[in-house]
Amino acid sequence: MLTSDNAFSTALALILGMDSALISIVTLSLQVSLMAVVIASLIALPLGAALALWRFPGRNVVIVALNALMGLPPVVAGLCVYLLLSRAGPLGEWGLLFTPTAMVIAQVILVMPIIAALTRQQVEALHGEYAEQLNSLGLTRLRMIPTLLWDARFGLLTVILAGFGRASAEVGAVMIVGGNIDGVTRVMTTSIVLETSKGNLPMALGLGIILLALVTMINAIAHIIGETAKRRLG
Amino acid sequence: MNKTTALITAGTLGLTFSATLMAADDYITLASTTSTENSGLFDAIIPAFSEETGIDVRVVAVGTGQAFEIGRRGDADSLLVHDTAGEEQFVADGYATERLNVMYNDFVIVGPSDDPAGIRDSETVVDAMQRIAESESPFASRGDDSGTNRAELRLWEDAGVTPQGEWYRELGSGMGPTLNTAAGMDAYTFTDRATWVAFDNPQDLTLLFEGDEALFNQYGSLLLSAERHPHLKHDLAAQWHEWLVSEQGQQAIADFEVDDQQLFFPNAE
Fold this sequence. Notes:
The complex is a heterodimer of chains A (234) and B (269).
Chain A: H1 4-17, H2 20-53, H3 59-69, H4 74-85, H5 100-136, H6 141-151, H7 153-169, H8 172-178, H9 188-197, H10 201-233
Helix pairs in contact in A: 1-10, 2-5, 2-6, 2-7, 3-5, 4-5, 4-8, 5-6, 5-7, 5-8, 7-10, 9-10
Chain B: H1 2-22, E1 27-33, H2 34-39, H3 41-53, E2 56-62, H4 64-72, E3 78-81, H5 84-92, E4 96-112, H6 125-134, E5 139-141, H7 147-158, E6 168-170, H8 175-184, E7 188-192, H9 193-198, E8 205-209, E9 216-224, H10 234-245, H11 247-255, E10 257-258, E11 261-262, E12 265-266
Parallel strand pairs in B: 1-2, 1-3, 5-6, 5-7
Antiparallel strand pairs in B: 3-9, 4-7, 4-8, 4-9, 4-12, 10-11
C-alpha cells in the first residue's frame, strides 16, 4: 500500500543506500538534461537576441512560431526524432536511436524554443531601454548581441533554468528515442513511469522525491551564483 | 558565467565520453514486451547469457505491435514477442528468417473481489467474457495493439461479443498502467499471469478466472532477416536466438520465480 510515509522512507533508503543503479540513473539524467540545455543555450541565446534586434519580413511569424513551440508536446518531439534517427529514417545510418545522444537531441528540440523565445523578449526590452546609447557608441547590431546578452545575464539565468526544468521533467521524448534501456538510457523520469507500471508506487514516488530534490538543488546553486555575482557588481 | 558554462560543458562532455568508452561494443538491442521486462525475467536470464557469450542484451520493452514496427524499421537486432499469428506473418513478409517457440505462460482474468459478473464459476473463458458483457460490468482493455490486447480481442470474437458500450473501456496503455486503472475503477481486465503476479498495487483486484486452454500465451523469438537489414548485428543476435532455446537458456527461464511461483515455462522443441 502507498502512504506518503513509505514513499519518503523509500526515497531516504535509496539515497542512503547509494544504490549503484540509482546513481547511474541520476548521473545519466543530469548528463542528458545539462548537455541538452548547454547545446540549446549556445544556439538559442544568440538566436533570440538576433530576433530581438533585426527587423525582417515574416519576423512576427517567426516569433509566433517560436512562442508556440514552447508548448511542443514532448511525445511529438520524441516521435519526430525517432523517425529521423530510425534505421529506416534519413539519419538512420548514424545508428543513434536508443542512445543517450538521441535523448539529448530530442531535449534540445524541446528546450531551444523556450530559451530563444524568452531571450528574444528580454533582449528586446533591454534594447528598447539602451538603444540610444548603443547607437551613439556606433555599435553594429552584431556587436550589440554579446553586449545585450551580457547585460541581461541575470534574467537569462532564469530563462536557462526554465529550459532545464523542461528537460529534466519531460518523459515522453526520452522514452520514445531512448527506449528506457536498463543501464543505458534509463533516466529518472522513465524509471518513475516503469515503477508506476509495475504498481510499485512507493518506489515511483520515492524516485520522484529524489528528482525534485535534485532539481531544487540545481536551482539553488544557480540562484546563489546569480546573487553573489549581482552583489559583487552592484 | 561564461566560465561556469564552459566548466559545465567540459564536465558533461567528459562524463559522456567516459561513459561511452566504458560501454561494451558487444551488445544487441532486443525489442520485447512489457510483460517480460516488468516481471523481471530479463534481469534473471540476461546475466547468464552475457557471462557465457560476452554479449550484453539491451531491452526495449514495448507492446508487441510496436515491437514488430521496431523490427520492420530495422531498429532492433532481435525480437521476443507473444503473438504467434503476427510472428508468422512477420516471417512470411520477409522481415525475419526464423521463428522459434521459446516459452509460454497463460492469460488470466482479474477483477473486483465481489465479482459482480459472477465469472468465478465460469466453465470457459468465453463464458466468463459473455457474463461480463451481459452484466455490462466495467472492463478495462489495453487497447494498444499489444499481444495481450490481440489475444483479448480474439476471445471477444470467439464469445460472439462486440465489445463496446460504456462498460468497455479502451485505455491505450501498457499492462501495468491498465492494472493500475482497473484497480482504481473496480473493473475486470485481461492480463498475462507474469505481470499480474509481479504487480504490486492490486488494491481490491483479485484473480477470478484461469486455466482454460484458450488462455495459452506463447512467446516466440524472431531471427531478423540479414537481407532486409544488413546493418543489424546478425551474428550476435543469432547467438541470443539460439541460446534462448538451448538447454542453458531454457533452464534459466524455468529457474526464474517471483514469490516462489514460476512465471514462464520453457517449451522449445
